């Protein structure tokens, strides 16, 4: 099997899973939960943030163990399959969430996001197995670009179901859009599980995977002094990923309630933003391989600062589109460059374990940001005040990033 074909199949998983992130986290379900499930309650933003943060807390807790276990057992694909279909099933069941079903709506969001985010631990760890180090940035960028193509197409498919707004006669169509997200993820994830083969390593002795997971995580923490550079990067990632996750899950709610976007306008907005996200992932992936991941990541974080500050002052839909285009370019590129930089600086023999920690820092950071945004928004009644705090996460992350050395790990 050629490397190009394997890379394409690997990126097809990104194509599949972003149907969940764009239709559930970013557009349809987030607004549906705020307006219909909670009845536009004043604590709606807070409840949405709480559900997301709970899921991230669980993923943050289990990610290092999952990474170590998968590394030891050479069974990344099996675990990826389990988490993928947890997300697919939970997302499909959102069809049954109606007005007043706040607890059910929150539980399904928690389960679906655990499946989505938990699976990324194993998916990201396949990057070093399908390409060489010199192409990490480019291939990672291709993955995110394919993801945004998937977002674009899944939004187009869901558009007919959502164009009628939240009218009583259109409510079943709105809920069918959640099924669209579920089926899209299911169908386009299949090629990965059929085609991609992982490298197998025979264990010397049979032991409990859980015990090995605990021991390897403990060992990593005990020897963290040996991985100072990785630690510096993870701290930076912890901070700026908080900002990115907060933007993702509150963007549509902000557009709806602060700028009075209709549901159709929100969909049109995100369809437009996907084009810049696709271009950003590819272009910045190529730039990263030319000038380095650290410099490229610094540029994207400056773009994020401009996005957050711009949203605070934004008072019309045209300017919000401009801000969205900047955010789209920064989103794909910052995520893909982070992944490729992590691949570059970690020891190869511990790739899955360290991607577990990468996921841990990214997910645990997302516990705080959504809670802060939701709390500030609910208490002050102003999403503008809540959004300006996001800029501080990007500024701090940029400062911490400057202490990271972009060099291949050497024991």
UniProtKB/TrEMBL annotation:
Keyword Calcium: no
Membrane topology: Multi-pass membrane protein
Any one GO MF annotation of this record: transmembrane transporter activity
Keyword Transmembrane helix (UniProt): yes
Major facilitator superfamily (MFS) profile domain ranges (all copies): 7-408
Chief place where the protein resides: membrane
InterPro entries reported in the protein's UniProt record: Atg22-like (IPR024671), ATG22/LtaA_families (IPR050495), MFS_dom (IPR020846), MFS_trans_sf (IPR036259)
Keyword annotations: Membrane, Transmembrane, Transmembrane helix, Transport
PROSITE patterns the record matches: MFS
Annotated transmembrane regions: 7-26, 46-66, 78-97, 103-127, 139-162, 174-196, 234-254, 266-288, 295-312, 355-376, 382-401
GO cellular component terms attached to this protein's record: endomembrane system
Compartment list: Endomembrane system
UniProt-recorded name of the protein: MFS transporter, UMF1 family
Organism, scientific name: Kryptobacter tengchongensis
